[in-house]
Amino acid sequence: MAIFQFTFMVNAYRAGTIVAVLAGALGWFMVLRRQSFAGHTLALVSFPGAAAAIFLGISVTIGYFAAAITAALVIAAVPRSLGGRARSSESAVIGTVQAFALACGALLVSLYGGFLSALTTNLLFGSLLGISASQVLVLLGAAVAALAALAGIARPLFFATVDPDVAEARGVRVRALSALFLVLLGCAAAEASQITGVLLVFALLVMPAAAAQRLTARPALSFVLTIAIALVTVWLALLLAYYSIYPVGFWLSTVGFGGFVLATGWRAWTDRPRPVAAEVTT
Amino acid sequence: MMKTATMVDAAVRFDRAAVALGGRTIWSDVSLTMRPGEFVAVLGPNGVGKSTLVKAALGLVPVSAGSVTVLGRPAGQAGREIGYLPQRRSFDQGLRVRGVDVVRLGSDGERWGVPVPWGPSRRAASHRIAEVIDLVGATGFAAMPIGQVSGGEQQRLLIAQALVRRPRLLVLDEPLDSLDLPSQVAVAALLSRICRDQGVAVMLVAHDVNPILPYLDRVAYLAHGGAACGTPGDVITSRTLTALYGTPIEVLRASDGRLVVVGEPEAPARHADRHAR
Question: Measured between alpha carbons, how far is A84 from A77 in angstroms, rounded to an integer?
Answer without folding.
Answer: 12
